[in-house]
Amino acid sequence: KKHVLQTVCALEAVVLRSFGPDGGQVLFIRDTAEAMLSRSGSRILTALRLEHPLARMVVECVWKHSTVTGDGSKTFVLLLASLLRMIHTTVCKDPTVSHTCNSRKAAEAALARRLADELLAFVLEDLDDLITVGVVPYGCCVSWEDFTAKTQSPVHTNNHHVQKLLASFFHTRLGYTHCDFISNLACELFASWKFKNDTPALSLQFVNDNFPALHTPVSGFPIDCSRLIEGQIIHRDFATPCPQTENQPVKAVIFTGYLESELLRAGEVLEVGCGEQVMEENSSMKQSIVQFSAWAERSLEWVIADLQSLGVSVLLFAVKQSPAVLALATQAEMCVVECISEDELSLFAQLSGSMPVSDFWMIQPEHVASLAFCRPVLLGAHRYVHVAFHDLEEKVMVKPCSLVICAPGEGQTDQYACAFRDAIRMLLTAWEPLGMTAHTASKRTCSNASPFQQRVLEPGCVIPAGGTFELLLHHTLRQHSRSRSVSDNTNMSLPAVSQLLAKALLCVPQRIYSYKHKTNPVQNCSTKECPLQDSKLSMHYCGQAHMSSNFFLIQYDLLFRQQFTNTFQSNDHTITHFCTMLPLKHR
Amino acid sequence: MARVVKKAPSVCTDLPLGNTDICTKLHLLRQLLRSCFGPTGRLKQIHNNIGGYVVTTSTSSVLLPAISSSQPFVNMLKTSILNHVSRFSDCGLFAAILCLTLIDQANRAALKRNVAIKVNKHLLGLCTSYLQREDCGCKVKLDFSSSQNMITLARSIISSKPACVLTEPETLHISKLTVQAFLLTIPCDMPGIVSLGKTVTVSVEGYSVLDSAVFPGLLLNITDTFCISKADHLHSTPLIVVVFSVSLAGDLSELGDGIIQVHQGADTDSQILNQLLEVGKQVVKDEVKLFVCQKVIHPVLQQYLKSNGIIVVERLGVTLMEPLIQLTGAQPVASLHTTIPAKAYGKVRDLSIRQFGSQTMLHLHSPGESVVCTMVLCHRNETMLSELKVVCQKTEHVLRLTLREPSALLGGGCTETHLAAYVRHESKNEVAQTASVLGCSQMEYLLGMEGFCRSLESVATALEHNGGNSLIDLTHAHHWTLPADVVKDQMADNFGLCGCGLVGSSPSKKWTYLNTQYTELSPALLPRDNVMQPCVLDSFAAKLNALQVAVETANLALDVTYIIQDVN
């Protein structure tokens, strides 16, 4: 039992350094001597090379949790540690255990196991309703329209929720100094990628899917130089001298393969005779090697001429081309970009509405994309190709832009890119339709049977950050346990479990305010038996601690339930594991 | 067979800045970099245990990659600075010293991590907005109508690299050359987007630095002068040039993965050679006078071309292809089977032979206005020459940066002291508001501010290596140095000029030692009709970015609370 607790506490100690608004960065050096900076709990934990099987399992759970939600991994570990401590102390104090002296350890283990089972049952059954009743009323809803509204009227006071939500997210992920700047940038990015006729989730999903192609890391500049650039950046340089002309529109074609036909495929045999004699014998198979390659070159010229007749001036290739292609394209005044990654080509095809060419003998007008411009752009050490699409705003009502992330070092640009991706994921879960939520937690027995919850909890619900959620839930749990113990005295364990959970929850706000010594809302609440009105007061306290403006997400329904089911699965599992180990020791 | 090796657990360090080992290492690094800073900086010799040649340098871009540390913290700082240097080519040591001093000062003041970060960030904002203001006291507008300021800027960069071992006239000569080369690469009358040309550097060992020169056009290394010596008549009309980008050695081009079956009696080699000679015939018919190939040319073809009075240059290499194409206007030819189109030919106005030591060069002049030039750098030995080459390339880059932002900052430590004085003055006025905005106490804010200003000033003092003292004057807040054997009271007689040369000493001036408490002052602007010209200038863009990168890196370093090191 202690073993489990020790392991989780060790993990907690690692995570704690970067927890909360005052947390710091963790510098991680890979075995390849690459540096990685992070404040993301799941990245830090997965970076540790852990040996202990239990610790590995916990990390696995954290990782699974954060791939879905993009947030909350540090809280996960803190809560797990706190719960385990609570169970441990309860078990140690329990009078029934100390009486049975003969197998004290076995009894302890059994009691712990029983507590964990009950906790799990309680969480699965009652927690959702408790959250809906006790926490959700204090939250507020953020709608997707806030993004666009913000860009239209920046002074409108009501619409800063998304920006605040992002700011508080980036605060915990990147630190205080740049959170406002980066959250504004993120809002701008999302606003310009908003498809007018689609749901927010689809737009966000689009940005999420195409994020590798949509951002460019640039090292050597201060972070304030990060910006949005109109159009798309193709992360390759021109292979031929780049275009100097300013004529519009520029026509481009995407090729997925080689422009030059592969002359001899594997398995084919070229018979080479000696030039002149062969011609006399008029055998088409036996020509000189020179004639053969002349034929190959001519076929390439035909393709280029074909392209010229369509007015194409930019060729985008997925693979590297032969020098002959480059030279001929240069002579035809076309510019060539080679080795473009699949993601970027597919994004380009989507945005330009053109089809990639796979067979170069069949180039049709629908393969030709029309661009506003295509020019080189120098970002940091690299020169890239910058393209813009001119009629997109009317067609799909979207303003394509890409994100340039500047930072002094590569470790930091990585960190910022990761934070962006997690922010998208976090927003996606925040607006996830609730049907999905209920579906994810398939273990729940009463989810579909509770129309109450369906009515109240809307997607996009947020509550103030700074431990408010935990404090509110704490009170609700205590009230709940009190009312239960009054109403029926038959089942004593349920209030005990909810008390335990309530106490464990307090560790999160305690950690958040551990740096501030002035007012400690936790102490205030836990000493007094405060009703819900008082918890409003505690929110106020949080506000004094510079946090009220920051809104923290509460798609918490999903987050929290997952946290708990995971926690308890792991808890349960570990204890089972422990119990099976125990007899072995005693043998 | 693959062996399964058990992975070692990671090494963790909690609160790295509290760790004495790390602090010692950072201190050591700071001492090392400080000793290299400025024109009188001490040189460092880099060599490794297993031989290899010795590098003598004081440049951050050469020095920093050579410092390999097991300490991740040092490596993190190193990459930040190197990234800055690769973008801006200047002010690397400035950034590194400032960053390390900021960390040290924050550590020494025992400020809370978050407070130090917030204060640094705030003061950085103060500095950058001041530097970008029109009336900034340490900024000089660059005037492109006279080359004076540009030569000064180039000279400041070149003279701050003592490993080049240049005398005063040599420094001036090289500065003038770099400015000349820079001006040659700017196209004069091109509408639309201006694209800059290229400077090709050729290094020649064993000659005096004063023999270095810049030539418009391109110099190509050639092996034999035999065919050109009789070609004196080539000066008259524009000469036709053809440039091949494929190999003309007679090898088979890549055909694919299939099998080639050669029949008895078929001689592929001679068939291909015949084809090459066909190309040769066409070239001769089209009256080409210069035949250049990026790769190898078959000796028979070479012989054929030479016998027809064509100058042949082979194995040009890919780096010279771009300037050559730019100069001649030729399009590289890659096909052997089609006739070369007329527009693929380029033109050269003039051909001549230039001899530099053992190297014979073919000098190509552009037919029209040229944006390609060649810089021949000479120096006494290899080490100095390689350093000089690096320095000239950096200088050219810095000069190019001025095109985007035509201003420069005062050098010689004057910008640093001036900024420090400005920051002290500005922040003293509004301590209360700023402290409440940043969420710290006024005391903490003042401590953080003091650390920031001290760090800036300490960069200025790092310029002095001969035991002299650094001072600041109390009117313009410029930086002055005093030789070791002179005391402060005799100052008026001993000082000539301040660090940047813009302010002269006068009996009415007051000075104080740097790193002592001095009464806060608002740095006075220099009068508009100041006759003095600055003699040391720093690149504005590079220094501004260096300042930002240094503070951000210091903040990042202060923010790291845990290090996990995978030691596998």
TrEMBL record, chain A:
<dbReference type="GO" id="GO:0051131">
    <property type="term" value="P:chaperone-mediated protein complex assembly"/>
</dbReference>
<dbReference type="InterPro" id="IPR027409">
    <property type="entry name" value="GroEL-like_apical_dom_sf"/>
</dbReference>
<dbReference type="InterPro" id="IPR027410">
    <property type="entry name" value="TCP-1-like_intermed_sf"/>
</dbReference>
<protein>
    <recommendedName>
        <fullName>Bardet-Biedl syndrome 10</fullName>
    </recommendedName>
</protein>
<dbReference type="InterPro" id="IPR027413">
    <property type="entry name" value="GROEL-like_equatorial_sf"/>
</dbReference>
<dbReference type="InterPro" id="IPR042619">
    <property type="entry name" value="BBS10"/>
</dbReference>
<dbReference type="Pfam" id="PF00118">
    <property type="entry name" value="Cpn60_TCP1"/>
</dbReference>
<dbReference type="GO" id="GO:0005524">
    <property type="term" value="F:ATP binding"/>
</dbReference>
<dbReference type="InterPro" id="IPR002423">
    <property type="entry name" value="Cpn60/GroEL/TCP-1"/>
</dbReference>
Automatic annotation (TrEMBL), chain B:
<dbReference type="InterPro" id="IPR002423">
    <property type="entry name" value="Cpn60/GroEL/TCP-1"/>
</dbReference>
<dbReference type="InterPro" id="IPR028790">
    <property type="entry name" value="MKKS"/>
</dbReference>
<dbReference type="GO" id="GO:0051131">
    <property type="term" value="P:chaperone-mediated protein complex assembly"/>
</dbReference>
<dbReference type="GO" id="GO:1902636">
    <property type="term" value="C:kinociliary basal body"/>
</dbReference>
<dbReference type="Pfam" id="PF00118">
    <property type="entry name" value="Cpn60_TCP1"/>
</dbReference>
<dbReference type="GO" id="GO:0005737">
    <property type="term" value="C:cytoplasm"/>
</dbReference>
<dbReference type="GO" id="GO:0060271">
    <property type="term" value="P:cilium assembly"/>
</dbReference>
<dbReference type="GO" id="GO:0006457">
    <property type="term" value="P:protein folding"/>
</dbReference>
<dbReference type="GO" id="GO:0005524">
    <property type="term" value="F:ATP binding"/>
</dbReference>
<dbReference type="GO" id="GO:0051082">
    <property type="term" value="F:unfolded protein binding"/>
</dbReference>
<protein>
    <recommendedName>
        <fullName>McKusick-Kaufman syndrome</fullName>
    </recommendedName>
</protein>
<dbReference type="GO" id="GO:0032502">
    <property type="term" value="P:developmental process"/>
</dbReference>
<dbReference type="InterPro" id="IPR027410">
    <property type="entry name" value="TCP-1-like_intermed_sf"/>
</dbReference>
<dbReference type="InterPro" id="IPR027413">
    <property type="entry name" value="GROEL-like_equatorial_sf"/>
</dbReference>
<dbReference type="GO" id="GO:0005634">
    <property type="term" value="C:nucleus"/>
</dbReference>
<dbReference type="InterPro" id="IPR027409">
    <property type="entry name" value="GroEL-like_apical_dom_sf"/>
</dbReference>
